[in-house]
Amino acid sequence: MKGKALAQLKLSVPAQETPVDKFLTASGTFQDGELRLNQKGLKLIREESETQSSDANEEDVQFALEDLETIKVIGKGSGGVVQLVCHKWNGKFYALKGIQMNIQETIRKQIVQELKINQVSQCPEIVVCYHSFYHNGVISLVLEYMDRGSLADIIKQVKTILEPYLAVLCKQVLKGLVYLHHERHVIHRDIKPSNLLVNHKGEVKITDFGVSAVLASSMGQRDTFVGTYNYMSPERISGSSYDYKSDIWSLGLVILECAIGRFPYIPSDESEGWISFYELLEAIVDQPPPSAPADQFSPEFCSFISSCIQKDPQQRMSAVQLLVSVATCDNLFFFLSLSFCNPISWNLCRANSIAFFFFFCACVRAMIRIIHS
Questions:
Q1: Between 369 and 343, whose confidence is greater?
Q2: Less Cβ around it within 10 Å: N or C end of the chain?
Q3: What's a Gene Ontology MF term here (predicted)?
Q4: Are 133 and 213 in contact (CB under 8 A)?
Q5: Using one digit for the tens of pLDDT, what is the confidence trace for 140-186?
């Protein structure tokens, strides 16, 4: 950035490495502050030596690394490879995230942060971490397997996602953000399509807390610069203090990208793309925020995007406000019914199994909600 934004841009450099022995006990347990992790699992040592077990196990399953059979590599998370594994005794599938222990301080802190958040998270819209281990320099997390991949995988196949399906997606992600922001006081800091996972039930869940930040209170702010730059809010890029609403900006960009089929910011010369990384950051900070085309989308959808993508964070709605506005302004079943009766939408669904999958799951969820209301 050639102007004031570039002058304020905060970029970190690798910290000096610390001997790994500093974080290992004589028995081979990895320790960092209140966190203890070894082959048996994870514990957080609370005040007055109170201990909290990490056994958030599914149906009391006893996890051991030797009981997990590797099927294939399914992706990469922050700092680690993710494998599909099958438990030899219960036959269920899990995602095993292996993180090579990095003694660089910033990376180590990210790993510890992810472990702590996974340890305490209890929300249907957050990917479950069933167990974690430390052995031979590798930290392993046994995670819930989301068998439809990430939102990034889906939009590569379908290009765009229609409003009714985005309504289903938005509500679930917002519920996850409400939990993180207001119950755990956590800023995710890396909301992007690849960190929103989908399963065959139509559930959308947030994952990857490697760069999350915990605030001491709901009024706290941060000023560090980590995460994926494309979806980073203007105040974070310019080095200003930020809070939970930086996640809302990221969510708005993700939803708009799903709707229009491309990243919302357009380079000055589309044929060449972005000349540099800094040109993109300059556009996010200096240009007017993108918006949903009014001639292609409903007023409600355009308003939702506008409420998320405001350059002034004070003008953005919170996750709670957005969830309330979506719930009160949108009759999901009505819009789904219109979509079902629309020949164009129905033909699209029939032609694309993923679109139909989203449509079917949304209909079922809407019907269940109406029956129980």
A1: 369
A2: C
A3: ATP binding
A4: no
A5: 889 999 999 999 999 999 999 998 889 889 999 999 999 999 988 88
Which residue out of 60, 190, 286, 312 is catalytically annotated? 190
- The C-alpha R_g of the chain, in whole angstroms, comes to 22
Q: Where are the domains of the chain?
A: 20-144, 151-372
Class of the CATH-defined domain 20-144? alpha beta
Burial of residue 50 (CB within 10 Å: 0-12, 13-18, 19+) is: exposed
Amino acid at 199: N
**What's the predicted TM-score (pTM) here?**
0.75
**Beta strand pairing call for 35-38 and 41-45:** antiparallel
State the Cα–Cα distance between residues 83 and 70, nearest whole angstrom: 7
Second CATH level (architecture) for the domain 151-372: Orthogonal Bundle (1.10)
Quick one: tokens of 179? 């939990």
> 139-156 burial string, b = 16+ CB within 10 Å, else e?
bbbbbbbbebbbbbebbe
User: Counting runs of H as helices and runs of E as strands, what totals does the chain give?
Assistant: 12, 13
Residue 42 structure tokens: 């994870």
According to the annotation, is 76 in a ligand binding site? no
Q: Do 78 and 190 contact (CB within 8 A), yes or no?
A: yes
